[in-house]
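Lab notebook page, bench 4
Experiment: in silico fold of construct C2
Operator: M.H.
Input chain length: 245 residues
Purpose: comparison with the prior construct
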Amino acid sequence: MKIIAHRGASFYAPENTMTAFDLAMTFGVDGLEMDIHMTKDKKIVIIHDDSTGRTGTRNYKVKNSKFETLKKIDVGSWFDPKFKGEKIPLLESVINKVPDYLDLYIEIKSGVEITEVFYEFIKGYEFRKNQIIIISFNYNLIKNLKALLPDYKILWIVEYGYNVPIEKNMYKNVFKKIDAANLDGISTLADLTHCIRMAKDIKKNKWLWNVWTVDNPHLAKQLMNLGVTSLSTNRPDWIIKHIAN
C-alpha cells in the first residue's frame, strides 16, 4: 500500500503549499495529493476551496481571478505565522519540482469547464503518465477525460451520501459506472463499513483503490489488509512509522 501525503504534509504545514509538499517528501512518501482549480486566465493552480477566504489573507473567487492577483495572497499565515508569505502554487511548478518516482494524485475541483485546458496541459507530461493519477468527484468530468487520456490513470472519488446516494444497489451502480467509463479504479472515504463491502469486487476487477483521509495507524492497517492500494494521510511520517512496525 502506497502512502500519499494529503495536500502535502498538511498536519504540519499549510495545505497545498510548496512547504507542505517539500516536507512530505522528506518523510519518504510514495506520492503527493493536491487539489486544483482553473483561474480566469486559464492557469491551473493548487488550492482546495473555490475561493481564497479560508486559507488566504484576502478573499477572491479563483475562477473569477487572474493568477497575477492570486499569487500575491499569503496562504500560510492562517496555519501559523511562521509560514507567512507562502503562495498559491501553479500545478506545473509542483510537477516540475517533484522527482519522477513519486506519484502525483491530482484532484480536479473545477467542473467540466476545465476539461480542454487540463487535457492540453497534462498531455505535456505524457512522459510522467505512469506517476500521474487524476481524481475527481465529478463523474462526467473524469469520464470525458478518460476518453481523451486513455493511457492515464483516472479514478472516481466516491462518498456515499454525498455524490452517490445511499440506496440498495449503490455499490453495484458505482462499479458499473467505473466499468462503463473504463476508469482505472476508485477513491473512497475511509469508512470501514463501506470499504469491507466493496473490497471483494474492487480486488476482482484489479482496480486501483485509494482511501482518504487516514491519520489513524490502526485504521490504516485494517485498510491495507483489505487490499487498498494507496492511502492519503495528513500525517505521512506517523502512518509510515506504524505501518513499518
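Observations: DSSP finds nine helices and nine strands in the chain. The longest helix spans residues 192-204.
Next step: discuss at group meeting.
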